[in-house]
Write a structure and sequence with these properties.
InterPro entries: FAD/NAD-bd_sf (IPR036188), FAD/NAD-binding_dom (IPR023753), Sulphide_quinone_reductase (IPR015904). With 419 residues, the chain is of the alpha/beta class. The chain folds into two domains: 195 residues, FAD/NAD(P)-binding domain (3-Layer(bba) Sandwich); 155 residues, FAD/NAD(P)-binding domain (3-Layer(bba) Sandwich). Strands 1, 2, 5, 6, 7, 8 and 19 form a seven-stranded mixed β-sheet that branches. Bound molecules: flavin-adenine dinucleotide. Flavin-adenine dinucleotide binds next to helix 1, helix 2, helix 8 and strand 20.
């Protein structure tokens, strides 16, 4: 339904993804009235399931529900796209031409996937050999192609810079390798992983587990490298040492022929945030991992999730310039912190909550086991069960959690602001 001209809402939430719906649901639970989400999509996507779809352990429908069916009770929905924000006048401008003014504003439109940032990559994705778990449209094709591969070279790429759940680039690779091993064809397939960091993840205890699986499957890893060019017609690609885009360092370029390319695109803050005056200007996010810097993302105090210059503006999730590794798991903490702080600000009270930088990345290292990485914004272990680091080992228990329990919790509790 188009937004009425000049609507006003007490709290306007930009983006009805994981962050937007969870925080809106929590705000309602904490008694905040007149909360409205602006979201253009008809369908809501549970992105962690994309990896299972690409790896053949879930059907495509399991990642999708109609947006109307997941908007939390008591929360409004304007089906439109935000073009820009004028925070000085508390106004949000929409694609339809309508304007919405806000009391409080929560900005969470997610991350932007830049398929055109690598020359030839977008074209390659349109060929039968180009697949990915990072878009719903490419994930079913990924499993079709990976499951029918019996020999040749399959290249998986994980980009440099900021990314949503960076390690998810590797998940379909382990799932496919386990399948090829079951089928007795793994030895005939050259599997190459191009990863931008000098290790597989960035935490020694997780790296050890992943290195063991990489050795078990015979995966060839190109560390500190990234995809810089694809020639889809010739089925060749070029990788280079990280820094190729900035021109820094002695970059060695290497060409590889491929039969299948499973690519993850470079990612960045949504371009339109730059003109709103809300973006973080420069500086690195300070961690040792693979998440790049925070430039262009919505500036926030990483502890309170409040904008440093506009006290009625807040941000969380993939679009926020927080210091953590971006993930849905991080949002379970962030939504609670933001909603409690915003409710307190409305009541004129001091902000009660601080975000602790928690994030998570569940690596599906086989078709029945997961290595569950839980960590803070310095890539130090941050286990949910204090003092027990056992979940960081390959386990069946965490497979059940990742494949079955967390999706149920997402649809039934997280999106309602209850977990
Ligand atoms: C392949 C893949 C696998 C993943 N696996 C995991 C995992 O295993 N575990 C984990 O914890 N996390 C995982 N994640 C990360 C997780 O999905 C994200 O961190 C999470 O969805 C971020 O929530 P968000 O609301 O910030 O962004 P999103 O969920 O992406 O939502 C953003 C919303 O904003 C809307 N929007 C965009 N622009 C505008 C605009 N201009 N106006 C209005 N609305 C707009 C979009 O339509 C979208 O609905 C994965 C992500 C991917 C892509």
């Amino acid at each position: 339904m188009p937004a009425p001209q000049s609507a006003h809402h007490n709290v306007v939430v930009i983006g009805g993804g994981n962050a937007g719906l969870s925080v809106a649901g929590r705000l309602r639970r904490y008694g905040v009235s007149d909360v409205t989400v602006i979201e253009p999509r008809e369908n809501h996507l549970y992105q962690p399931m994309f990896s299972h779809i690409a790896g053949g352990t879930a059907a495509p429908g399991m990642a999708v529900r109609r947006q109307a069916s997941v908007i939390p009770r008591g929360v409004g929905w304007i089906r439109d796209r935000v073009e820009t924000i004028a925070p000085d006048t508390n106004t949000v401008m929409l694609e339809s031409g309508a304007r919405v003014t806000n009391g409080q504003l929560v900005v969470c439109p997610g991350i932007q996937k830049n398929w055109n940032a690598v020359p030839g990559l977008a074209d390659a994705m349109a060929t039968p050999q180009g697949v990915s778990n990072y878009e719903l449209e490419y994930a079913p094709k990924a499993w079709q192609v990976l499951s029918s591969t019996r020999s040749g070279t399959v290249v998986f790429t994980q980009p440099a810079g900021p990314a949503t759940c960076a390690g998810a680039a590797q998940k379909p690779m382990y799932l496919a390798c386990d399948y090829w091993r079951e089928q007795g064809v793994l030895a005939d397939i050259r599997v190459v992983l191009v990863v931008s960091s000098p290790t597989l993840f960035g935490m020694p205890m997780i790296d050890r587990e992943l290195e063991r699986k990489v050795a078990e499957y015979g995966i060839e890893v190109q560390y500190s490298s990234e995809l810089v060019e694809v020639d889809a017609q010739a089925k060749t690609l070029v990788i280079a040492g990280v820094g190729a885009y900035s021109g820094s360092g002695g970059v060695s370029r290497r060409s590889l022929s491929y039969d299948v390319l499973h690519a993850v695109p470079p990612q960045s803050a949504p371009d339109w945030i730059a003109s709103t005056g809300l973006a973080a200007e420069a500086g690195n996010d300070g961690n040792d991992g693979n998440d790049g810097d925070a430039t262009g993302f919505v500036d926030v105090d990483p502890l309170t999730l409040r904008h440093p210059r506009y006290p009625n503006v807040w941000s969380l999730g993939d679009a926020a310039a927080t210091t953590n590794s971006k993930s849905g798991g991080a949002l379970r903490q962030q939504t609670l912190v933001l909603a409690k702080n915003l409710a307190a600000a409305l009541a004129g009270k001091p902000l009660p909550e601080r975000y602790n930088g928690y994030s998570v990345c569940p690596f599906t290292v086989s078709r029945s086991s997961v290595v569950f990485a839980e960590f803070d914004d310095r890539y130090q272990p941050k286990p949910t069960i204090p003092f027990w680091r056992g979940l960081a080992k390959e386990r069946r228990l965490t497979w059940v959690a990742d494949r079955y329990v967390l999706p149920w919790v997402y649809w039934n509790l997280i999106l309602k602001g209850r977990a």
